[in-house]
Amino acid sequence: MKEQRDNSAPVPLLIDGIEWRLRDETGAANRDSGLRLEPGTITVLMGPNGAGKTTLLEKLAGLRPLEGLQVSYGSETLWRQGWTRKKRLNERALRRYAYASQSPEDGLFSRSMREELDYSLRPYALSDREKEERRNSAMVAVGWDSSWLSRDPYQMSGGERRRAAIASVFVTPAPWLFLDEPTAGLDGAGHETLARQLENSKKDGKGILLISHDSDWALPMADIVLLLSVDGSLRKCSREELLIHPEWLEETGMNVPEWLWIAHLMVSNGLSADQAYSPAEAATAWPGKLREAAEAQEMRAVERQRRKERPKSAIRHRLTEFDPRSVWLSYVLISTGLLTLADWVALGVGAIIVFLLLTAGKVSLRRWRGLIVNYAVFSVLTSAIFAWGASGGGSQFEGEAFMGTLFTFVRTMLVLLLGLAIPLVMSPLSLRRSLEQMLTFKGKTAKWVQQLILTVTLMMRFIPVLLDLWERFVRIFLARGKSISRNPVAIGRRLRDVSLPFLLALFRLGDEVTLALESRGVGFSGRPTSGTRLRWRKRDYVFACGASALAIGLWFFANR
Amino acid sequence: MELQSIEPMVLKEVFVYGMNALDEPSLRLDSVSLTLAAAEWLTVVGVNGSGKSTLARLLAGLEPEGRHGEVNRGFAGDRSCPIVLQQPKSQLFGETPREEISFALEWRGVSSDQISFFVDRALYKTGLTEVADEPWERLSGGQQQLAAIAAATASDTTSLLVLDEATSMLDEENRNAVKRVVRDLYKKGTAVVWVTQRLDELDPDSRVLAIGEGRVIFDGEVREFLYGVSGETADELSSLSPCLRAGLRLPYLPAMALNLRRQGKLDDPLPVTAQEWRKVMGNFGVEANERAAR
């Protein structure tokens, strides 16, 4: 019971390790600790594209590594150092917030509204009666009656699905609500309902942190405005202060919306901030001296001049400098060399060489970590099963058979590791060119070869996109399920939950890709022309020669 | 090269039947009729699920399944037209703007020796020359969308360009950059279909088409779309503004203008653009001063 009350009791959100300043303080006053958001307030987070609004929100929700930030909900820190000295998420802190990501309706997966709400409630130990109450109030919050509880989210329209997703955020007793662009695509009535509900939650003592493009919808209810600059620093002010200093928005790299300038002019001419934030009240209080229009325009022009460029540092991977064919050839050569290795010592040397090559090429395989770990587990398990099988079904474990099978797996893994590096250092298009040129005879490429190449390169192009998509749903479900448990049953359940929305999103993506390809003319004219022809240069020969030398060396070593 | 026709594109009572996520039939477009002239700018607005994307794809010549009714593509020709979608990631096939544009040109069948010239020209027109060889991670969302536009329009003169919420994920600065490029194309004679749900993107001189539940709710000028026709019924606010009838939220400035008109403080034509608003504010200030002086 105590734990439960803890879950919903109002707590401040404390953020350390981010540069911030108050109101009109200058850059010199930058603090990096003590940023505090109070319960019972609505905070609107604003900033230009690329400043990292969503990233910041995800960090606060524990969906991303903090990178120097420290976050706690009251006395519960978001990440705790476990006994292994490894930082782990604190589930008690996770239960302090409910999170609606961008397009949260993509994450719906149940076959009824009631199941969907119960899923959000599961991390909280509530009695059946309390659950009932929470479900009902969540339905009221989005303007629905309880008959909607039995509705299937997949049979709802786009707007209704958004409401369903927002209801599953309001249903939790968590004291903090995070909403990322909740009104994008919502109709006018939806805007009103949501604003009303946020005000109600605020009265109940909840803290609300909100990102919204619809500044004229969000700002009028903001108690606190956080302005995020491209350099990652924050400015904290009130909505009244922002109305007096709209240029603060420009300092973050944003443009000031036209309506805010007009509202600013009205405040400069004697209207109160509250009047200016409401179009109806502003209209009623309208007549006043308006002197500043020309001046304001001039100020904007100056500000725009002063705005600094986004810093750019463009270093592409050095392997992209080579002809893709020489990279391919080298890969094939070295892989052949690796596959000739026949004993564990030689394999050790091979592993060192692969490691050195990856290091020298500055290739980070972090992107593929999941795949590599899975492969390793799979290899060991398969080898173990094989070892049992080799003993003729007896209870004896054949050590030799185990090592023998494992050896093959490890050798393949080395080849795989090198191969995984290729899409990281080579773009799909240059890959396509290299394949095409290798498969072209007398200036002609067979049609089926064309299609094959296009398919392969498109798959390569979209693997990172698919990974991103998968990670997005994993984050959505971590934010809702609030479980970091690593036992197989929990992992299995999470996989099942994520799969359906992921697959649906995948179909949508596939649909869009097809459209985009069609509109680019792919498939119209029989075969494409080729813009640039690849040319071997001296460094490509050197590269390929080095690889052959290495392959021959490996072969000699294997046969020593 | 085919002859450029100047016949308008005509849709006559078009229905599109689709399937929802559960494979159940649903009506996406409901008796839509409209005419799009060559070199015209048409803004399409509506809430999520109103059918505006279906319409956009139909106009772009990407034939949806289950269409009934008459479509005469006129000036737009029978090939599909370039379309730019909301998410850059589903429509970029290269790794850099340069690669993206040459990919598109290669598939459009442009001869090899012309490609590099066309690529440079497309980069120049969209202002991407400086970042031509930067990978996507280093480009802003707006620049990625510009690359998609550059690739879609690189080959020759584009008769029609369709943008389906291409700027909905962008901030104002990126949005303006995209809009500038599209407006340049429009000035050179490309017809533009600009689908959006953001009403602050409306251009006062352009034509706006509001879609709700698959039906055309309004087709006319922006000023009338926001403020309705002024007249005797001017006090009935919600029945008047087609914007509200389409279920959209009236933004701050138009909402204030309607209130001002109701209170007799502002006369038609009500302001739409920033310039008009400043003029109104300025004039009012002067008038108030004059009144005070008298």
UniProtKB/TrEMBL annotation, chain A:
Pfam families, alphabetized: ABC_tran (PF00005), CbiQ (PF02361)
Any one GO cellular component localisation term in the record: ATP-binding cassette (ABC) transporter complex
All copies of domain ABC transporter, residue ranges: 13-255
Annotated compartments: Cell membrane; Membrane
Keywords: ATP-binding, Cell membrane, Membrane, Nucleotide-binding, Translocase, Transmembrane, Transmembrane helix, Transport
GO molecular function terms attached to this record: ATP binding; ATP hydrolysis activity; ATPase-coupled transmembrane transporter activity
SUPFAM superfamilies in alphabetical order: P-loop containing nucleoside triphosphate hydrolases
Coiled coil regions in record: none
Domain of life (superkingdom): Bacteria
CDD domains: ABC_cobalt_CbiO_domain1 (cd03225), EcfT (cd16914)
Transmembrane segments annotated in the record for this chain: 328-358, 370-389, 409-431, 541-558
Xref: Gene3D superfamilies: P-loop containing nucleotide triphosphate hydrolases
Membrane topology according to the record: Peripheral membrane protein; Multi-pass membrane protein
Family: Belongs to the ABC transporter superfamily.
PANTHER family on file: ENERGY-COUPLING FACTOR TRANSPORTER ATP-BINDING PROTEIN ECFA1 (PTHR43553:SF24), HEAVY METAL TRANSPORTER (PTHR43553)
Protein name according to UniProt: ATP-binding cassette domain-containing protein
From TrEMBL, chain B:
Presence of the UniProt keyword Translocase in the record: yes
Annotated ABC transporter domain residues: 9-238
Keywords, in A-Z order: ATP-binding, Cell membrane, Membrane, Nucleotide-binding, Translocase, Transport
Main location: membrane
GO molecular function, one term: ATP binding
Entry-linked Pfam families: ABC_tran
Name listed for the protein in its UniProt record: ABC transporter ATP-binding protein
Organism expressing this protein natively: Cohnella luojiensis
